[in-house]
Write a structure and sequence with these properties.
By secondary structure, this protein is mainly α. About 50% of the residues lie in helices and about 5% in strands. The chain is built from 11 helices and 5 strands. α10 links the parallel β1 and β2. The N and C termini lie far apart (about 65 Å).
């Protein structure tokens, strides 16, 4: 009768006094722990599998699914709230790595609660570390409560902004308008779109510049032998090199220009490079600017005629 005992303990817990935020948080955590234990006992007594004849993707039991969802939300909030008490990075033990990497293809599905439990046990404690406020590697952002909630809402709506008339499109248009205002772009001729990250944004931007210079590139490709060249400072990010490679321009078509003592591109060297390329029959088509210098330059070995990763 473990569940009955837990219910009695919760009744006692509900009558406890809390005097400050610290005691309240402790009370809340202990109460939720008891509730989750009762939920787990209830889960063991019923089947979570939906009927074989049902084609619905909905949970077989919404109340229990809600309990699992709330448990994961609380775990995520606890993770963020208590993150300063943990090290930035916790190395994954060999036995946990083995469990994850040697998992065989399941012949049957697992319950949502079991999957979440495995994530809490084997995944969350050994994350990369970028949500931590003292994680300073590369450009990964920290995890925030707003990010957790926005990802939840985004996944719930499961929308895209490629077409249609809906709220998501209006939000994207507004954010883009704000960005244009922040950077002082003209309101009547500026536009854009939101992407999954800087690398994808770079690919799209270079593709747009290529299309502007060679209007039939999408139909004809490089069949006429046009050789486009682009320019950036040596402080640029390596994703620009990858964009040139993926778009068929080739890394040799990117000119990396020296910088001055302020890490600003050397204008005279840039002008000379452009003039040399034009004299050799090449077509300059874009100049990529930097806001700050690259933090990944240690991945690039650069000389005058070659770019090696």
């Amino acid at each position: 009768m473990e569940s009955q005992q837990l219910i009695e303990e919760i009744s006692i817990k509900l009558s406890e006094n809390v005097i400050d935020i610290e005691s309240f948080n402790k009370w809340k955590k202990e109460t939720f722990t008891m509730i989750n234990k009762i939920v787990e006992l209830k889960k063991c007594s019923i089947s979570f599998h939906s009927s074989e004849t049902s084609s619905s993707l909905d949970p077989a039991d919404w109340p229990l699914a809600r309990c699992t969802a709330h448990e994961m939300l609380d775990s995520s909030l606890d993770f963020l709230e208590e993150i300063r008490t943990r090290p930035v990075w916790n190395p994954i033990p060999n036995e946990i790595r083995s469990i994850i990497e040697n998992e065989t293809i399941p012949e049957e599905g697992q319950t949502l609660s079991n999957v979440c439990r495995e994530v809490l046990t084997n995944v969350m404690p050994y994350n990369k570390g970028n949500p931590h406020p003292r994680y300073w590697g590369w450009v990964s952002g920290e995890g925030t409560l707003g990010g957790v909630l926005s990802d939840m809402i985004s996944s719930t709506l499961n929308i895209n902004t490629c077409s249609g008339t809906h709220s998501g499109l209006s939000i994207e248009k507004t954010v883009i308008k704000w960005m244009c205002q922040l950077f002082g772009f003209p309101s009547t001729t500026s536009g854009g779109l939101l992407t999954s990250g800087t690398s994808m944004a770079t690919i799209i931007s270079i593709a747009a510049a290529r299309q502007q210079k060679l209007s039939h590139i999408r139909q004809n490709g490089f069949i006429n032998g046009h050789q486009l060249v682009g320019y950036a400072s040596i402080e640029t990010h390596e994703c620009l090199v990858k964009a040139f490679e993926l778009l068929g321009l080739g890394s040799q078509s990117l000119r990396l220009i020296s910088v001055d003592q302020n890490c600003s591109i050397d204008i005279q060297s840039l002008k000379q490079s452009i003039q040399n390329d034009r004299n050799n029959g090449l077509i300059p088509f874009c100049l990529v600017g930097n806001a700050g210098n690259s933090i990944d330059l240690n991945f690039l070995l650069i000389d005058a005629n070659d770019i090696r990763m």
